[in-house]
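lol ok so funny story. i was supposed to be doing the assay writeup but got distracted and ended up predicting the structure for this chain instead. priorities right. anyway since i did it might as well share w the group, maybe its usefull for someone
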Amino acid sequence: MKTVSTQPLNAQAFAPYGQVLECAGDSIAINQGNCQRFHDLAELELDGGETGISLFHAKLRELPYVLDLMERHPLGSQAFVPMSPDGFLILVADDDNGTPVNILAFVSAPNQGINLRKNVWHGVLTPLSGSGMFVVVDRIGDGNNLEEYSLVDPITVLAAQ
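and the output, tada:
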């Protein structure tokens, strides 16, 4: 069985797949200086439809993790924002004529979320600790915005060494 090791999530390494949502970089002081706004962190992409905000409650998983299913959303981006300060496993891949290839595994730091570009292959929501609760911002509307791919040869995801 093939393996892939996790790496810490960072904006530069994740850039081909989307944006890292975190309190980093420039901010704007608001509310009489009592709050910092980290503005416009995600590039929302929508082909028709509307932006929706949903809550997902995902089962906690652990490493090593067997990856056997990937999915993508051809009509819109998808953001995952954890509702607890815990990190989660993020699996992404390049596309080769409808097949996910070159799979990468990231583990977010506490208080990091992600926004996946439309049509990016990714694993299912995979919290490693915490509540498993996430705010998900994505496209809601007509059309098929979900494509799944079952891996013929599952991949074992290992913790970074």
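The chain has one domain: 2-158. The longest strand covers residues 147-158.
back to the writeup now i swear
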